[in-house]
Amino acid sequence: MRKLVALTAGSLFLAAVHSTAMAGGHVAKIQSYVDSQIRGWVASEELHRAIYQQNLNHRGLSAADIDNLDQRWRAERRVGGGDLVSSKMNNQLASFLRGIKAASNGVITEIFVMDNKGLNVGQTNGTGDYMQGDEAKWKKTFSVGSHAVFIDDVEEEDGINISQTSLTVARSNGYSLGAVTIGINVDALK
Question: What is the pTM assigned to this prediction?
Fold first, then answer.
């Protein structure tokens, strides 16, 4: 019995070490995928136009307005949806992003786009909150500059090793519009 327990514990340890080692080498693979597959659609007019329009629409929002929107989003998510959530999950940008996700053949698990305040513009999957501007995905991209990329640690979600990878969305002249976060299935990368 002790041999079986030791063997099982050893197997679990080796599996954890293998998973961690695989996850640790994810940055170079993801950077290559960003350069070859993601940068093109991040520069698309569809994406830029949607963010720019929301930036215009939200230019007068106060911190209290943003907090109210975030609270409304969370309340709508708890009850399965509402006007605010639907406006970001079912707009033209969300449809564009769903096409990108589908074309990735399982590499991309989610995409969400944020404006210059860190507020959701469009997304493929629902986020827990509306305001992303207080999180690393926005702070380490939009707040840093037009060429910023932030590749987060790998976390297991539903048996899939995922790294949230974020980029600043900027015009060709370097003017930063917002940011995008892409969930990358690390195990699906070649």
Answer: 0.86
